[in-house]
Amino acid sequence: MVKVVGDKKGELTTAQLVTIIILIVSFIIILFLIFRLNPGEQTNKEICHNSVVLRAKSAGISGPLDCRTNYLCISGGDECTEIPTTSKADVNLNGEESKDEVMESIAKEMSDCWYMFGEGKVNYGTAEGTSVKYALCSVIEFDEKVQEKISEISYVEFYDYLRKTQKENSQSYLSYIYGVSDMSSLEIESEFSVNINQDKIKTSERYSIITGIDDNISPFPDEVLKVYIIPTSETSSRLDQGEFITKA
After folding, report:
1. Sign of torsion, CA 72 74 78 83?
2. Quick check: is 7 in a domain?
3. Is 9 within the bounds of a domain?
4. Along the 248 residues of the chain, how does pLDDT read in single tens digits?
5. How many CB atoms lie within 10 A of CB 247?
6. Does residue 6 lie in a domain region?
7. CA-to-CA distance for 209 and 230, rounded, in angstroms?
8. φ, ψ (nearest 5 deg) of residue 171
9. How far is CA 43 from the centre of its chain?
10. Pairwise CA distance, residues 153 & 139, whole Å
11. Domain range for residue 39?
C-alpha cells in the first residue's frame, strides 16, 4: 500500500502565527499613537517656532513668518461644525474634573502659543515696523456636549487654574506665560481689553488665542505681548489698529 503524505510546507506554525499577530497589534498601536499625538499639528508649531527664531536672528530680513492658525475642537464626544478642525482635545464630561479638563486644553494651547513665538525672549518684529503685529495662534470651538455640561467659565476661575496648575518642572502656567505667581501681579496689555474680574468664557461662542508684538514703541525696543484668550467675534473690532502675521 502506498502511503500519501500531505504537503505541509504551506502551513503556518504556532510561532509564526504569534509573530504575525504581534506585528498586526503593534502596527495598530503605532497608528493609534500617531493619531493621538497628531504629528502634523506639532510639526506646524515647530515650523512656526523655528521661523520666529530665524526672523529674530536675521533682524527681520528673513521674510514673513511661517505660522498657521490651529483650529481646536474641545470635544465631549461630538464634532465641531463651525470651524475647519485641525486638532481635537477630548474631555471626559462624566468625571468630577470635567471643567478642569476643558481649562487644561485651553491652557496647553496658550502655552504652545507662547512657545511658538519665542516665550517673550525674541524680537520677531520688523525694522520698519509701525504697528502692532498680532499672531492668531488658535481658534477654539466647543462641541454641543461641552456646551450643555459647562456653559461658561469665568476668567477669574480660569486664571486661578493657570496659577495653581503646573505646566512642567513645578512651573505654573501663569508663571510660564505671564511671569507672575499670582493674579494681583498680572497686568493686561492695553491692546487686549480683557477684564479678568468680569468676563466669562462662554462655550457657546468661539474663542481666539492670540499674542503679538508692538512695533510702535520706537526708539525703544519692541514690546512682546503676552498670550490671551478673547472671543473670536471681537477679534477684528478689538485689534483693528494692527496687522495679522499668521496664516489661516
Report:
1. negative
2. no
3. no
4. 444 444 445 566 877 777 888 888 776 665 544 444 444 556 888 888 888 888 777 765 666 788 999 999 999 989 998 888 888 999 999 878 899 999 999 999 999 999 999 998 888 776 555 678 889 999 999 999 999 999 999 999 999 999 999 987 778 999 999 999 888 888 887 777 788 888 999 999 999 999 988 876 555 557 888 999 999 988 776 666 678 888 88
5. 13
6. no
7. 7
8. -95, 130
9. 12
10. 17
11. 15-58+66-244
What nine digits make up the cell of 189?
496689555
119: left (phi over 0), alpha (psi -120 to 50) or beta: left
Does residue 5 lie in a domain region? no
> Number of structural domains, the chain?
1
The candidate with the shortest Cα–Cα distance to 90, out of 78, 230, 81, 20, is 78
